[in-house]
Structures are given as C-alpha cells and as structure tokens.
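A reminder from the course coordinator: this example appears on the midterm review sheet, so study it carefully.

Given structure:
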C-alpha cells in the first residue's frame, strides 16, 4: 500500500479455491495492529469480502469490500 507515493505497507497472501487472503506485515510503529483482507471471486470482474484491522485489547474494525474491474 502507498501513501503519497511512499510504500507504507506490504501484504503477503495466497489464492485458493476462489478465495484470496492477504495479511499485512507487522509495522514497527504499531506492532499490536494486525490487518487481514479476505476476498472471494464472484465473477471475472467482481470480488467481495472484508478487511479486518485488529488493535490492542482485541479492538476490531471490519470493512465490507465490493470490488469491480472497470
């Protein structure tokens, strides 16, 4: 992921059975924070899923994602 053309986050992941699971590498500035993206292929041009951010004390933020190729 980039902010102002600077690389700020790198994800690793795997694609299996129409599912893409990405995990962000730990950040030294906030080692307690974990990020995961889970996407499912719905068609050749559409994916849907969630992005989960887990912080200290199991505080969790979940975003619903709907992606379409233009």
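Designed residues:
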């Amino acid at each position: 992921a980039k902010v102002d053309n600077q690389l700020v986050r790198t994800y690793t992941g795997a694609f299996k059975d129409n599912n893409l699971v990405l995990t962000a590498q730990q950040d030294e500035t906030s080692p307690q924070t974990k990020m995961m993206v889970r996407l499912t292929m719905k068609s050749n041009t559409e994916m849907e899923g969630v992005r989960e951010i887990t912080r200290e004390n199991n505080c969790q933020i979940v975003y619903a994602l709907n992606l379409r190729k233009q």
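Strands lie at 2-3, 6-7, 11-16, 19-24, 34-43, 46-54, 60-68. The chain has a mean pLDDT of 88.
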